[in-house]
Specification:
By secondary structure, the protein is of the alpha+beta class. The chain has one domain (9-102). Helix content is 44%, strand content 16%. It has 5 helices and 3 strands. A 3-stranded antiparallel β-sheet has the order 1-2-3. Helix 3 crosses helix 5. The protein is globular, with a radius of gyration of 13 Å.
């Protein structure tokens, strides 16, 4: 199947990086939203990983906190290991040009 854009590419190629627990249409919708809002582009996929390049990441903690919550809903395994929880993860998102996700 041909992808309309990078946000659709993982679903178009049958990627199951969420260990079979993800809905490819929902993943594509989230990636498309992040593509529009943050200039996020898929740059890598693996067996349980997804790497994004981010052109316009959140510029401050107030903007990063809701994005961190979105990331937690999208991929809890990425946020859970942080000692400072969601707020610690949000601090890492401020100005970050790369977002990485992994599913356990």
């Amino acid at each position: 199947m041909r992808a309309a854009d990078g946000a659709q590419a993982p679903a178009a190629c049958g990627w199951e990086g969420t260990n079979g627990h993800g809905d490819s249409a929902a993943i594509a919708a989230v990636l498309g939203d992040w593509q529009r809002r943050f200039g996020a582009r898929v740059v890598g996929v693996g067996a349980g990983t997804l790497e994004l390049s981010v052109a316009a990441p959140p510029a401050d903690l107030a903007r990063a906190l809701p994005v961190a919550a979105e990331h937690e809903a999208f991929c809890p395994d990425t946020v859970l290991p942080h000692e400072d929880g969601l707020s610690g993860y949000a601090r890492e998102l401020v100005g970050a040009g790369r977002w990485g996700f992994w599913w356990d």
